[in-house]
Each structure stands twice: as structure tokens, then as C-alpha cells.
Specification:
- The complex is a heterodimer of chains A (27) and B (256).
- Chain A has 27 residues and is an all-alpha fold.
- Chain A is 85% helix and 0% strand.
- Chain B contains 10 helices and no strands.
- Chain B is globular and about 60 Å long.
- Chain B is an all-alpha fold.
- The chains are: A mainly alpha (27), B mainly alpha (256).
Chain lengths: 27, 256
């Protein structure tokens, strides 16, 4: 259902994307 | 958030202040529960209009408390410009275009946007998930977010006690991200018979939220560095990006 996608899939995908971008950062 | 950078140029102090801010955000969220508890326990609700009145009282009380703290902030906060003079930073105005030329601005913007997206959209769907999908007791609608806030508060407090570098920010952000991936996968495949497991997942969601939010906000501090005159634009533009993306994400999800 949409709630499972909103609460489960979307945050997981966002976190993965966030981690990938963080890896390329020069802090 | 942008004032944090004016208070200190030290990277560890900035992370400590960001985690302190996050801890107090959780206190604010939990205080709303206390207000609701007081209203529900002191007033009786028999009709539909009684319930409406209870929610009106919760809204008025929380707005009043919020206004009081805004007053305390404006009256009690010293002008940060006085501290900038101590650090010897100039007052030269920084153009908006300056930030658009920086690759780090886009990277931090995307990371912050994705972090807030994960946090806000999950909060929006949490109540629907525990009631409609998991068929949990109505109390879970309040209990699960409360567990998230409490664990997030505890982690934010712990993060204040650490020494911070750029590499540590990245490492802790990734730790939060990995936790969210496991939590997301668990939520996606959690059967109704194991609905009680949601309380355990909520602890880890709270930890992941604190790790990602504090480090995400601190990455903005790293981006700003000592260019204090442009920090309001950085925080404002990235917060705007976060709000727009959350709205769009919920719109797209609801269209299904």
C-alpha cells in the first residue's frame, strides 16, 4: 500500500541516495 | 539554525549546538503530547463538537506556549554581530551567485533535502501505517511517534559529548542511513501478525533520524564555514528545497 511505500520504501531510497552523495563530498 | 554559525566558528561546537537544537525539537514534540494529555484528562468529550473543542484547546495552548518562547528568544538573545567582531570576520555582503558556484552547496542541499524527505514523509504516514496496515491499538498512533522522539532525544544528547570532524560527520550520517535502510525494509515486509515489532523499529527510526538530521545540518555549517554573511541564504534556500520536495513527494504518493 501507499503507506508502506511512504514509510518504508521512500526513506530507505532517500537514505541510500544521501549516503551515495555523502561519499562524494569533500568535507 | 543559521545563528549557530555566528555563535561559534568551531566545527565541534557547531555540531554540538545542532544536536542540542535537535534534542529540543524532540522536547517540543513531546510537550505537545503532554498538552494533549492534560486537555483529554481535564475535559469530557461526548459529542463531535466536544472533540473539536478539545483539539481547539490543544492548538491554542501549543500556539500560546510557542509564542511565549518566541518572546523569550527575542528578548533574551544577544545580538550575534557582537561576537562576529571578536572573530574578526568582515561584514562584506556575499552574493547569492557565490553559493551556486560551489559544488558542495548542491551536495549538501541534496543530502539535507533527502534527509528531511525521509524524516517528514515517514512521520506523515506513520499514523496511517500503524492503524490501517498493522491494525494496532489506537494508542500506538501516539506511542510509536513518542518512542521515536524519545530515542532521537537521547541520541542527540549523546552526540553533544563527541569531538567532530568532517569524516566523522560522513560516517555518522552513513550509520543513520544504514539504520533507515534496515528500518524501511522491515516496514515494507512486516506482516500484521508481528505488528508489536513496530515498537522496536521505532527506536531505531528515532536513532537514525537523530544521526542523519544532526549531521545533515552540521554539513551546512561546514559549507558556510566562515562566510557568515551568506549563511541565512544557505539555510533558507535549503529549507525551502526541503519543504517543496516533501510536498511533491506526498503529492506523488497520494496520486497512487
Amino acid at each position: 500500500s501507499v503507506t508502506r511505500y511512504g514509510l518504508g520504501l521512500l526513506p530507505a531510497v532517500c537514505s541510500l541516495a544521501g549516503m551515495a552523495i555523502t561519499y562524494t563530498m569533500k568535507l | 539554525m543559521s545563528m549557530v554559525n555566528c555563535i561559534s566558528l568551531n566545527s565541534t561546537s557547531r555540531v554540538v549546538m545542532a544536536s542540542c537544537r535537535n534534542a529540543f525539537t524532540m522536547v517540543a514534540n513531546l510537550s505537545l503530547y503532554a498538552v494533549a494529555l492534560v486537555v483529554f484528562s481535564t475535559t469530557k468529550s461526548t459529542t463531535h463538537s466536544d472533540i473539536e473543542n478539545q483539539y481547539h484547546w490543544i492548538a491554542y495552548t501549543s500556539i500560546f506556549i510557542g509564542c511565549c518562547f518566541v518572546g523569550v528568544f527575542h528578548l533574551g538573545t544577544k545580538e550575534p554581530r557582537l561576537k562576529i567582531r571578536v572573530h574578526g570576520t568582515s561584514y562584506a555582503r556575499i552574493s547569492w551567485a557565490y553559493w551556486f558556484k560551489k559544488v558542495l552547496y548542491y551536495q549538501v542541499g541534496l543530502v539535507y533535502m533527502l534527509t528531511r524527505l525521509a524524516q517528514n514523509v515517514s512521520q506523515a504516514y506513520l499514523a496511517f501505517y500503524v492503524i490501517e496496515d498493522m491494525r494496532m491499538a489506537k494508542s500506538a498512533k501516539a506511542l510509536v511517534p513518542a518512542i521515536i522522539y524519545i530515542s532521537s532525544f537521547i541520541v542527540s544528547i549523546i552526540m553533544q559529548e563527541m569531538y567532530w570532524t568532517g569524516q566523522r560527520l560522513k560516517a555518522y550520517y552513513c550509520a543513520g542511513g544504514v539504520l533507515w535502510v534496515f528500518c524501511g525494509a522491515s516496514i515494507l515486509f512486516l506482516p500484521q501478525s508481528l505488528s508489536a515489532f513496530m515498537y522496536v523499529i521505532s527506536v531505531f527510526i528515532g536513532i537514525a533520524n537523530a544521526l542523519m538530521t544532526v549531521t545533515g545540518v552540521s554539513m551546512q555549517s561546514v559549507l558556510v564555514g566562515s562566510d557568515l554573511n551568506g549563511c541565512a541564504f544557505v539555510y533558507g534556500s535549503l529549507s525551502f528545497l526541503d519543504k517543496v520536495s516533501c510536498g511533491l513527494a506526498v503529492f506523488v504518493l497520494q496520486s497512487f
